[in-house]
Fold each of these.
Amino acid sequence: MDYKIGLLGRIFVLTLTLFLFAYMILTEAGVFAISLFIILTFVQLILLIRYAESSFNKVRQFLDNIKQNNYSTVYPVKFDGTETDDLHIEFNAILAKLKEDQMEKEANFHYFRTVFQHLSIGLITFEADGSVQILNTAAKRMLNIEKLSHIQEIASINKELHHAIENLRTGGSELIKIAHPDGIMQLSVYAIELVLRDVKFKLVSLQNIQSELEEKEMEAWQNLIRVLTHEIMNSIAPISSLAATISMDINQKLNQQAAVDTEELQDYQMGLSTIEKRSEGLINFVSDFRSLAHIPAPKFSAIKIRDLFDQMDMLLQNQLETQKVNLHKQITPEDLLLFADCSQIEQVLINLTQNAIHALEDAPEKNLYLRAFIDDQGKIIIEVEDSGKGIEEEALSKIFIPFFTTKKRGSGIGLSLSKQIMRRHKGNIQVKSSRNKGTIFKLIFNA
């Protein structure tokens, strides 16, 4: 029976009963008849309320099923065209759609979990209280463990790794060396902080870059050996040739027991002087090489970047005036502080500004910019920019190699030394250059 017709019918019968009940009261019918009609009225009211609540109870049951993720309930459909039938059809359609969405969500979850587990990069996710959510197979293999319940447990494996994981913020990265049964591993640790459904958690990736580092190290050694061989041969070849010539001439004089005149002595003296100068050059070259391998550990202190830039301005004042270079200083915010070794960072800035001034020698507009600011990731950035001729693309990939230089006069260790100092500060140095537009060196300090 249609719900509306059933409801209207029950209301009509209740109304008729009430009308008859009122009529009997007015006609002073007997107590038995009136009592009977009173009972009949209450019964009809209860039946009417139950009938009216029947659809509400179905809706409440339907909502409870959704709340409990129970999509297996099927409401009976008689296909008699009634509103109850239509309601059941809608209920079944909604439950079927929700069930399909749940199955798709579960399939996606299993898919991504499978991908997560089979990635070659180690991944760990943990909440703010340190409880680990997911630990993939690669991370287990790198850490040589079977399970990880709390992130604190990593401290027993490697304290430095645990400290990095706990303290790295979004975008932060660090290189950690750990011992492993298969040998020493160099792990690149990268962290991202996320919020999902008001729950904070951190995603940490671990990548073993030992083989890549060894390959780069071998490449660096080959480049270094190539440069060293070139420089040493350039110095030794003329020394050897000149020494052989002088030795041969002296031996010839000794064999012939010939006298040596003043002019020949002057030639010998000039040759020996040349050998001495080239030997000193070779000694200075080796000394420069040794300086690269003996950079002292930085002594960290708070530095006002404004004071650092003012100091650079004072040191360069004579050169800037002589070369007619305009120095522009920009610091945002004005009271920006840097925690670093003041003397070492000053040395880096001296190297970069000297290179910039050299690049501005033939520039029509001679502008040198010193900038300091905080980027979107909270890192302190110092930039040294010039409006000079720029660096050729081929040289860009080699400028940090020790003893490589594009200058006619230069040791080629300034940029290499600067890069090592920045690495000692857990930072980095980057360069961007365009021909005839200028060069920007960027010092990046991880906050």
Amino acid sequence: MRKIGHMTYILKINISLLVIFCSAIGTIQAQSASIVSWREAQRQQPEWYGSDEAVRIAENVLLYQKDNGGWFKNINMATVLSSKEKTRLKNEKKKLVGTTIDNNATHTQMRYLAKVYNATGKEEFKKGFIDGFNYILEAQYDNGGWAQYYPERKGYYEHITFNDHAMIGVMEVLRDVVEENEPYTFVDETLKNRAREAIDKGVEVILKAQIEVDGKLTAWCAQHRREDLSPAKARAYELPSISGGESVGVVRFLMGIENPDPAVKKSIQSAVDWFDEVKIEGIKVVQEPDKSLPKGYDRVVVEDPNAGPLWARFYEIGTNRPMFVGRDSKIKYNLAEIEHERRVGYSYLGNYAEKLLEKEFPEWKEKWL
């Protein structure tokens, strides 16, 4: 009987431990379910931004914000921070070198803070947005352009940058402020006027930078020299060229201007004409399995008469030939001719302007031309 009693006692302990373990697993799963990624956090319904999880992430965003109002890039703002990590971030707020608008930094954090402030009314989030607002205005060049980094970094980082939606992303936030779109209705009239002036300067430099070939306007390079607005080289595989990718974002921004003047209308029409002229038909890009290669596949161009139009990321100025450039900075005219690492690691061909030509421009043209 004693043995049975002892076994019963042990069994009760094990069952209790199992209940505790299952309860802990359930708690962890529930917490995991409530945690969203930084990408997901930017795409929620308006009511979500008043939730505890939204506020937690917004507090992270403030911790990552530097004293000049900007942010570093490529940071997961939604990560769960320990007390030690929070202390470190507070101590690093004076590290300003590296604050940037590259890779969607700064303007995405500003948008997020505006949404959470709109939902919660917490003043610290409004202040964070305004600090970011002042940062991007201070970072603007006198000629109206924005470089990737502020404070400035030497090298190609100084160029006016359309690449990766940098300058256009900033201008879109400013336009939302000026137009009093939700959730930016809290911005006062003084700041709206400053945003309006910054947009006007930005549009002016966009029009001046549009590449002209044989007296005919085309589109834009991914980056332009701030001194003379000429197309500029960035990384080894990003040479001076006309961009079939970044130029789409520029045109879309210009099409968003209410009551566009003749210069803006001409710029848009010219760029669209160029997109139509240089579209590539009858081919598609496919991933071809190949276990002998580092990533297990290759990216190749194949003929397909039914494929939709494609555009090259880079076009040679003067010839409109699609350019494919690897890390050796040598121009090739076929994707297969550059190294495998770049073929699969960078976007050289895409349907960048398809929606613009098929839907967006015709709607704009019907309204304004």
Amino acid sequence: MTQSSPRITVLASFSGAGGVERMLVNLLHGLTAQGRDVELLTIRTTSPHLDDLPAAVRRIDLGARHSLGAVGVLARHLRAARPPVLLAAKDRAGRAAVLARRLAGVRTPIVLRLGTNLGAALAERHPLARRLRVATARRSWRRIEHIVAVSAGVAADTADIAQYPRGRISVIHNPVITAQLYAQAALPCPHPWLTAAAQQTAPVVLGAGRLERQKDFPTLLRAFAQLRAARPCRLVLLGDGAWRERLLAEAEALGVAADLDLPGFQANPYPFLANARLFALASAWEGSPNVLTEAMALGTPVVATDCPSGPREILADGRFGPLLPVGDAPALAAAMASVLDAPLPRTTLQDAVSRYRADTSAAAYAAVLDAVAAGLSPPAQSQA
């Protein structure tokens, strides 16, 4: 660390085993690898990803179970430590940071990382609930000095929803690709369907994510049923969630239950991703789907819905995998058949996502945080 590199303080809630927590740990590894002085303020500490924190990160548990409950202790920390810049990893953490800074009476600039397309996520909400959520976002985000969006789609949505100046939004791709990703992917895959021999007769289509509305696995299941009617294949869906029983019942109704497996959450999903013949993303909305990037980094062919937002950017407008309308099972089935018949070369897919390397992402974050700490506009190359 040099004299010109200010300390970086990160505020985050570690409340599960999801992609946000994993990406944050990757980012912290990238920052400490650059020799940066990093402290992590945790709101919740129930994530297994905390076990993978870099040793150099100073972790301070705020002792709260939710973001608003952390405001008082966060204010005391801001008043005592006066960090040069604070990175809030999620929207709720950002709102807590705004309140705590005001309570503390300090000027620590806040940078908020946003990973979800809020407009798409709220599309099906009741109009009153949607207006209330948008009003809350506008009130909070306008008090934040800078926003980092994980995709150009999230940046555009943020500028529109919150009426936030586009010049104060940087687009930085998630720190997805690490040496650990490849090391974990090289471990044996525990699923019998994913052996090379088994896939000679029945190739596996893989889906992954929470079994909930956002991921739209019912559409993927219907598409798979159409694909299965035309050729031998199997579907494996990784993840847990409230829609598990619904998916099992629908598989029975479609006559494909024998070719569907739901093995639940996997602490190491990468051997599954690396060995599947195809990864399919059927989401209704995203921010920047990490699992799609991970599949490509491992050389696995992909198809994805053209949902807001992220897949179009990752797949370069369909150059590296078909983009399908959200909710269109026949189109998804046809795309899966096409990719199974003529997959892109492994190296082509891997090269397509090289900008999602963790060291590249960490360098971009550091540049933004340093600029904001100094009261400057972030460098143009970090913006889309």
